[in-house]
Amino acid sequence: AQSVTQLGSHVSVSEGALVLLRCNYSSSVPPYLFWYVQYPNQGLQLLLKYTTGATLVKGINGFEAEFKKSETSFHLTKPSAHMSDAAEYFCAVRVQGAQKLVFGQGTRLTINP
Amino acid sequence: DTAVSQTPKYLVTQMGNDKSIKCEQNLGHDTMYWYKQDSKKFLKIMFSYNNKELIINETVPNRFSPKSPDKAHLNLHINSLELGDSAVYFCASSQDVWALSGNTIYFGEGSWLTVV
């Protein structure tokens, strides 16, 4: 069965600093990996996803993530944090033929002025 | 146009009541889902329907009964509400649950249910 672990339930960075949100997955078959963002009192919005091909994936709002099979990781990064990036971020995994997304526990990102 | 819409967005109700949350998607997708987000923000699937047929039921109490009148709608009815049912319920949809490609699952805005 697949699973996702997000390291750090809360990450705090200064405005303009690098954002790094960690995600590791467990899957016996090649996974499809997703990052979703949830702004306060709102639904989930897809940031980016990895299916096949290029392992560095670019998403919306300047975010990107790199699939590293050897490390079973899919960390989310953004070079320069903006106040509007403050939100909850969820990593999720889905394997071929699987009927559902399995989510990590989420990481709350706080941006300090 | 909202792709996945659910109503109501906020619902406060007393224990023991019966309530429904409605969901509609206009994406032409075959598969719809209900996810529950608890107070610690953890998201877990409850149900999934593909072309109106139930394909996932994740050990949810039978007080929860999903109904899919057509593939664009998946409603969630909850009987005899309990305090522990307080959560955010997300409806979602995807093109095809069986697809081999990593089809995106699109989420609605959520329904905040508070049982008092």
Layout of SSEs?
The complex is a heterodimer of chains A (113) and B (116).
Chain A: E1 3-7, E2 10-14, E3 19-26, E4 31-38, E5 44-50, E6 56-58, E7 64-68, E8 73-78, E9 87-95, E10 102-103, E11 107-112
Parallel strand pairs in A: 2-11
Antiparallel strand pairs in A: 1-3, 3-8, 4-5, 4-9, 6-7, 7-8, 9-10, 9-11
Chain B: E1 4-7, E2 10-13, E3 19-25, E4 31-37, E5 43-50, E6 53-57, E7 64-70, E8 73-78, E9 87-94, E10 106-107, E11 111-115
Parallel strand pairs in B: 2-11
Antiparallel strand pairs in B: 1-3, 3-8, 4-5, 4-9, 5-6, 7-8, 9-10, 9-11
Notes on the protein architecture:
The complex is a heterodimer of chains A (113) and B (116). Chain A is mainly β. Chain A contains no helices and eleven strands. Chain A has strands spanning 3-7, 10-14, 19-26, 31-38, 44-50, 56-58, 64-68, 73-78, 87-95, 102-103, 107-112. Chain B is mainly beta and 116 residues long. Chain B has no helices and eleven strands. Chain B has strands at 4-7, 10-13, 19-25, 31-37, 43-50, 53-57, 64-70, 73-78, 87-94, 106-107, 111-115. In chain B, a hairpin with a 2-residue loop joins strand 7 (64-70) and strand 8. Chain B is globular and about 40 Å long. The model of chain B has no long low-confidence stretch (mean pLDDT 91). Classes of the chains: A mainly beta (113), B mainly beta (116). The A-B interface holds A 32-34, 36, 38, 41-46, 49-52, 88, 90, 94, 96-97, 99-101, 103, 105-106, 108 and B 33, 40-45, 48, 55-56, 90, 97-98, 100-102, 104-110, 112.
